[in-house]
Write a structure and sequence with these properties.
alpha+beta; 24% helix; 30% strand
Length: 185
Amino acid sequence: MKLPIVAYGDPVLKKVCVDIDETYPDLQQLIKNMFETMYNASGVGLAAPQIGLPIRLFIVDTKGDEDEEAYVKVFINAQILEETGELWAFNEGCLSIPEVREDVMRKPNILIKYYDENWKLHEEKVTGFPARVIQHEYDHIEGKLFTDKLSLLRKQMLRSKLDNISKGNVQTDYKMRFPKQNRKR
């Protein structure tokens, strides 16, 4: 089932999320719905807060290109243990903040510990684009958005666009839930 994506301005996007355990209700169905929602919106990652759930769960599918294999994973109760390398800029977007893309500085290498959908514990080094997507989604479960990483001046320049998103004054190809209006798209 395709779920509505929560838009910028909703308080759930600013919450530090809570761990879950194997007894979380209908977890496998939730994961399946998250992948369907992400693919429908042409995303490469989706975190639970983006569908209104303040839990430490996110998914990634980088789809790959000619040089790289697709990186498809489920992350439950993830912890980034280390970020290394020289900061590099990359133009990021977010399904919760449609029509806004900005250069964000991140380190290219991470060490992450997480449970997969079968509750197997992993500790993994990830580099390049998959590491960037993981960092972006991890920020979501920590109550942060990519816009939080922008300069104050840049945030001020985006203010009216962000306000319009929270009011539902934006066009998307997927369903969204807006904090400053009652209707869904």
